[in-house]
Amino acid sequence: MPPLNFAMVDSGIFRSGFPDTANFAFLQTLGLRSIICLCPEPYPEANAQFVDSNGIQLFQFGMESYKEPFVNIPEDTIREALKVVLGMLNTFNTSALCFCQCIVRVGGFAYSLFIITCNADVKNHPILIHCKRGKHRTGCLVGCLRKLQRWCLSSVFDEYQRFAAAKARVSDQRFMELFDVSSLKHLPISFSCVKW
């Protein structure tokens, strides 16, 4: 059985609420390499044993659940979690670079172009992102990823609201709207729904 609010975000990236023992068999079918937990509490013993026995790397970014409208979501924490999703935490993998040569003919002349592209380093994939219910903290992280993927804000908000439903928070949406992706644009991003 999948965890609460389980969904595929992109190829090799999943989201959900906090998994419990009833979800472990399902999670094993995903072949997870990594889990990002956005809750500040210590990881429960049963979950820690599941992670260890399945060779899954746990990244815990303890973010409090904020219900008050004027409490700031920790932008640096979201930024570091995005680096894990993108496989870029403290490393730059040059094997993610791809070189292509292209011949372009204009009039009677032929020009040789060399194109360098970068793909996300998927060393942490498949990866599961979760918080307690898979709504707010997970929704903010996924929303910021969507901004990096150049989704329009209305689509980012639609996805957030699909999971948060009646508990959608204006403060979360404002955070996603104002989140500055410019410091992350140098990171290689190439997922199934990205077209550069």
From TrEMBL:
Start and end residues of each Tyrosine-protein phosphatase domain: 5-193
Keyword Metal-binding: no
EC number: 3.6.1.52
Hydrolase recorded as keyword: yes
Protein name: diphosphoinositol-polyphosphate diphosphatase
Membrane spanning stretches: none
Species lineage: Eukaryota, Viridiplantae, Streptophyta, Embryophyta, Tracheophyta
InterPro entries per the UniProt record, alphabetical: PFA-DSPs (IPR020428), Prot-tyrosine_phosphatase-like (IPR029021), Siw14-like (IPR004861), Tyr_Pase_AS (IPR016130), TYR_PHOSPHATASE_DUAL_dom (IPR020422)
Entry's Gene Ontology molecular function annotations: inositol-1,5-bisdiphosphate-2,3,4,6-tetrakisphosphate 5-diphosphatase activity; inositol-5-diphosphate-1,2,3,4,6-pentakisphosphate diphosphatase activity; phosphatase activity
PANTHER family named among the record's database cross-references: INOSITOL PHOSPHATASE SIW14 (PTHR31126:SF48), TYROSINE-PROTEIN PHOSPHATASE (PTHR31126)
Origin species: Actinidia rufa
Family: Belongs to the protein-tyrosine phosphatase family. Atypical dual-specificity phosphatase Siw14-like subfamily.
Keyword field: Hydrolase
Pfam families for this protein: Y_phosphatase2 (PF03162)
